[in-house]
Amino acid sequence: MDFFRKLFPPPQTPNDQIKLGNQKLEAGDLASAIECFNTAIRLNPRHAPAYYSRGIVYTRKKDLASALMDFDQAIRLTPNWFLPYVMRAGIHEARGNLSKAITDYTYAISLNPLSSDLFFFRAIVHVKSKDFNQSLLDLNEAIRLSPDKPQYYLERSMVLDRNNQLENAIADLSQTIKLQEDNVPAYINRANLYLKLNKLDETIQDASHAITLNPMDGTPYLNRGAAYQRQDKLDEALADFNRALELLPNNARVLNARGAVQGQLSEYTSALNDLNIAIQLDSKLAAAYVNRGSVWLRQEKYDLALADYNKAAELGSNSAEFYTNRGFVNFRLERYGDALTDCNKAIELNSQLGRAYGNRAMALMGKTDYESALTDWNKAVELEPNYADAYANCGVIYTRLEKYDEAIQSLNEALRLNPTFADAYLRRGIAYQRLERYDEALSDYARTIELNPKSPYGNYNRGLVYFRQRDFTKAVTEFAKASEIKPDHWDAIAYEGLSYARQRDFDAAINIYNQIIEKNPEYPSAYSYRGYSRFRKGDTEDALGDFERSIILKPTSQVMYANRAEVYFELKRYSEALADFQKALELKSNHKFALAGLAVTHYALGNKNEANRFWQELLKLDARYGDMDWLQKELNWADALVEQAHKLVAELPSSE
Fold first, then answer.
1. pLDDT beneath 70: ranges in the chain
2. In whole angstroms, how far apart are CA 75 and each of 80, 89, 102, 104?
3. What is the pLDDT of residue 8?
4. Distance (Å, whole) CA 223 – CA 451
5. How far is CA 38 from CA 32, 47, 54, 57, 580, in A?
6. Residue 14 and residue 37: Cα distance in Å, rounded?
7. pLDDT in the model for residue 30
8. Would you give the end-to-end CA distance of the chain in angstroms?
9. Of the candidates 264, 474, 164, which has an alpha carbon nearest to the alpha carbon of residue 275?
10. pLDDT value at position 615?
């Protein structure tokens, strides 16, 4: 019997050839599989399964055009068979014809409405079409039909993430892990969602579990490193980013992350190298520009920082933190309007971000809108009660508003929150100094220098106290130290010269001012102080020239006008002295020297009523101006002014 079967085999049917072709396909012999399916078609050109099966082989060979023709033919021959629609949908999807893919999946679902996979496949195409709501509906139906398939929950979690439904997304990932405990992508994705919610311990736990399951996947190292970075565990973060880069070499995201941490560690060269490479690899990676901008910011290279932040904005950076940081850069560049715009945008995006109010407050301070700035600092403190910088800056504003007790109270709170806050000691010292509580000011300046010996401002302000105490030798030492730390600290150098002038060493003082002017000819105080020294030497005409130059350079300074007025008075050019004192008072309404000068000049002109009026205003501000000995000793007025003031006080009543 077998002999005759070999001699006369039964005739082959299309289904026999399809069965044989599927065996060849399973074995990877694609050419033989196609030959079998060709034979089946020759045996029956209207046999749809043969076209369908051959289409699958063409799909495997990535010959999508041939595959599409076969699936089209299978559908024409059997329009109510759902599988060719499914395969044709996959071809359309691969070619980017998403609407056609959705149409085919939809028809397949109408033919087989209980197939959960069809809803799942269509959901994926909806995701590619960015129709996340429709995708979510399909995934919900897929899960209803087959609630035990982990990949459905995994996919739905990603859609929920895109819709910013993070807690629901986490719940789906937890279900994925429940159904499949070794699902590495689920742990990685859940770690990433925890990171978005700033649940850092949970991020680290999930990322670590993913690493245990697959230590050769770089992504969980990236997630765990980001969590460590937010916990300020920068060494651990750097170690994870280094490992991620070993596993994902030349990965822009990893280089960006490592560059950001290196910037925080002040390893600026390494940070810039990583961030530059990240940008070369992916010029559209906004985060790399943001992080490079932050590196420039830490180095006080504000123009470069702003350029990178602007590029990041072009690429879509739109977070409250981003606008807060760019606002700070604009503040540093004295672009206060732009800083306000950025901070307003940050607050619009996140009204609970304390730093946004803080940075807006600094911009308002730059525009001298101190009351509004104070409101913002108070809001920042309300949102972040431990925001020491906010209390410190409230202290700065109160000092500028001459509310020194309130300033000290705010700075005390800043120091309670941060006992090593060097700038808070400095600012409190300034407030004490303005109240003439010099011992307390000196104590705060000493602490400032101890905490931040590389800053010149502790020495500079301690020098100002010694200057006020007329201990000019100590003052010179402090000013010299400040300028040693910061060679272009022109105020410190200028006050060093003024200290020599107060010791009547006018030649030494003038020599210092000449050196300043040679290096910085646009510095107005150098001319003003040199004018003072020349005036005290009796060189009034040259002094007058210096004061005029200082006014040209800084026409909004009441001090420059008042100093020139003193020279005019000495020259008995009373009308010009009166005009300059008046201008100084216009620029600062409570300028004591201007009030005293107006009173004395009016007296010298015989305008005794006006003289008395201005002198009474002066006494309301500071009763010590009734003490001529104090006045001559503390203020170092010109003899002519003191003489007229003596006569004025002796002749006029002390009150109206």
1. 1-11, 632-638, 652-656
2. 8, 12, 16, 11
3. 44
4. 36
5. 10, 11, 8, 11, 106
6. 8
7. 95
8. 144
9. 264
10. 87
